[in-house]
Specification:
Structural class: alpha+beta
Helix content: 25-40%
Number of helices: 8
Distance between the termini: 19 Å
Largest sheet: 2 strands, antiparallel
Order of helices and strands: HEHHHHEHEHEEHE
Length: 182
């Protein structure tokens, strides 16, 4: 899509100053680090297959820990339960995750990894606002929490590095060629 847009506008990749990513921050994707192939279709925010997981966590008392650390209730909406569901449903994925070959991310992470090289060195990052919607990040430390990861059965090696959200009040210089807006 980027190549098609550049071709349609007569621009080259060097003309790009930045790329913005908007995403559904609760949609969960898990893919293989070596092949780049997802293990399953993305699980979107509306999917309720994880209801049993959310209910069990809440009933066991783990819900209070999740609320205190992540600031979220156990719910089907957030990525942690979706990730646990995927890991429980697919033994191959679980084995790859334990070996460090499976990568998790919300759509921002998946797009960034692919846009920065994918299997040829793509970066595995997410920003703090997206990580905060997984039930796996501690709001005090702004990092993945070992206790929360254990509750969801998530190997830390599959999680992206959390980075601060970057914003700028200064607009990048534009080439001035329409129809590009900066």
């Amino acid at each position: 899509m980027i190549t098609a847009t550049l071709n349609a506008t007569g621009l080259a990749a060097g003309d790009l100053a930045a790329l913005g990513i908007a995403n559904q921050r609760e949609t969960t994707v898990v893919w293989n680090r070596r092949t780049g192939v997802p293990y399953a279709n993305a699980i979107v925010w509306q999917d309720t297959r994880t209801d049993r997981i959310a209910s069990a966590l809440d009933k066991s008392g783990a819900g209070a820990v999740i609320r205190r650390k992540a600031g979220l209730p156990p719910a089907t909406y957030f990525a942690g339960g979706k990730l646990r569901w995927l890991l429980e449903a697919d033994a191959r994925l679980r084995a790859d995750a334990e070996r460090g070959d499976a990568m998790f991310g919300t759509i921002d992470t998946w797009l960034l990894w692919n846009l920065t090289g994918g299997t040829a060195g793509g970066v595995h990052l997410t920003d703090v606002t997206n990580a905060s919607r997984t039930m796996l990040m501690d709001l005090r430390t702004l990092d993945w929490d070992d206790e929360l990861c254990e509750m969801f059965g998530v190997p830390r090696a599959m999680l992206p590095r959390i980075v601060p959200r970057r914003t700028s009040s200064a607009s990048p210089r534009c080439s001035g060629r329409p129809p590009v807006r900066c």
